[in-house]
Design brief:
alpha+beta, Fructose-1,6-Bisphosphatase, Chain A, domain 1, Inositol monophosphatase family protein
C-alpha cells in the first residue's frame, strides 16, 4: 500500500490503510504531547527562537519527536523534514530534493496562538517525494477537525469532501496575508498593493488553518512572503485538491524545495489567484 500511495495508484484512497494510520499517528501525537499542555504551559516551557514572534514550546519539540518516530515506522526508508529539526540543523531541509519519501512536519502551526490559549493552531503533515506533495493532513486538535488531501483524489474534512468554489461576482475578496512588518521592504511593497478597492486583506493566523479556510471557500486567498515547506506543503495540496490554484510572483507554481519568487498566493479558484497575483506583481514593480 505504501508504494501504491507513493506512485499515486491507490484504488480506494480514502479507505486505504496508510492514510488512516497517518491520521491516527497525528491524532496520537496531539493527544499525548500538545493538548495536555494547551493553556497549561509554564513560562520555562516557552522559548523565543529568533524573536518574540517566533516561539517554540515543549509541545512543539515533543510532538515533532513523536511524529518522527511514528511516521518513519509507517514508511521504512522515509525521512522527516520538521520545523524544529531544521532549526537545529538547516542541512535537514536538503532531504526535500533527495529520492527518499519525506514527511514534512509542522508539529504546532500557530505556536503564538497556542501559547496564548487560542484554539486557532494545528498540526501539519505532508508526504512528498522528489519535490511533489502526494498527501497531506491538517489537524486542529482544539477544534477536533481533520482535513486530508490525496493528490488526484480530492480534499476532505472529517471524511466529507470539500470544494473551494468561486467568490460571488463583484464580492470583496477576503485575503489573509503575511504581516508587512515582518517582511523585506520589497515584499512589503508587494503586499501593500492588496490594500485596494475590492480586496480586504488582513494579517494571517495559522497558515495551515488559513489554507483550510481557502479550501472550504470561507476565505478567498492567502498571500505569503516566506516559503518554509512545513507551513505550506499540506495546505497547498489541500487547496489544489479542493479546486484552487497557486502562483508565485513570477507566475510559476510554488516549489516546496525552495527558490520561489515571493510573495506568492493561493486562491480558491484560478481567477482569484490571478487577481491577487496581478496585484502583488504590480506592487513589486
Amino acid at each position: 500500500m505504501t508504494e501504491e500511495l507513493l506512485s499515486g495508484t491507490t484504488g480506494n484512497p480514502w479507505e486505504s490503510r496508510i492514510l488512516a494510520l497517518v491520521e491516527e499517528a497525528v491524532r496520537k501525537a496531539a493527544a499525548s504531547e500538545i493538548m495536555p499542555r494547551f493553556r497549561r504551559l509554564a513560562a520555562h516551557e516557552i522559548v523565543e527562537k529568533s524573536g518574540p514572534y517566533d516561539l517554540v514550546t515543549v509541545a512543539d519539540r515533543n510532538a515533532e519527536e513523536h511524529l518522527t518516530a511514528s511516521l518513519t515506522a509507517l514508511l521504512p526508508g522515509s525521512v522527516v523534514v520538521g520545523e524544529e529539526a531544521v532549526h537545529a540543523d538547516p542541512a535537514v531541509y536538503g532531504a526535500l530534493q533527495e529520492d527518499a519519501p519525506v514527511w514534512i512536519v509542522d508539529p504546532v502551526d500557530g505556536t503564538r496562538q497556542f501559547v496564548h490559549g487560542d484554539p486557532g493552531f494545528c498540526t501539519l503533515v505532508a508526504l512528498a517525494r522528489r519535490g511533489e506533495v502526494l498527501a497531506s493532513w491538517t489537524y486542529a486538535p482544539a477544534l477536533d477537525e481533520m482535513a486530508t488531501a490525496l493528490r488526484g483524489h480530492g480534499a476532505r474534512v472529517d471524511g466529507r469532501e470539500i470544494r473551494s468554489g468561486s467568490p460571488e461576482p463583484g464580492a470583496v475578496l477576503e485575503v489573509a496575508m503575511s504581516h508587512p512588518d515582518f517582511t523585506t521592504p520589497e515584499e512589503k511593497q508587494a503586499l501593500l498593493a492588496l490594500r485596494t478597492d475590492g480586496v480586504h486583506a488582513r494579517p494571517c493566523g495559522s497558515a495551515g488553518l488559513e489554507y483550510l479556510a481557502v479550501a472550504r471557500g470561507e476565505l478567498d486567498a492567502v498571500a505569503f512572503s516566506w516559503e518554509n515547506a512545513w507551513d505550506h506543503a499540506a495546505g497547498l495540496l489541500l487547496v489544489a485538491e479542493a479546486g484552487g490554484t497557486d502562483l508565485t510572483l513570477t507566475g510559476d507554481r510554488f516549489r516546496i524545495t525552495g527558490g520561489n519568487a515571493l510573495p506568492f498566493t493561493a486562491g480558491r479558484d484560478a481567477a482569484t489567484t490571478r487577481r491577487i497575483h496581478e496585484l502583488l506583481a504590480s506592487g513589486a514593480r
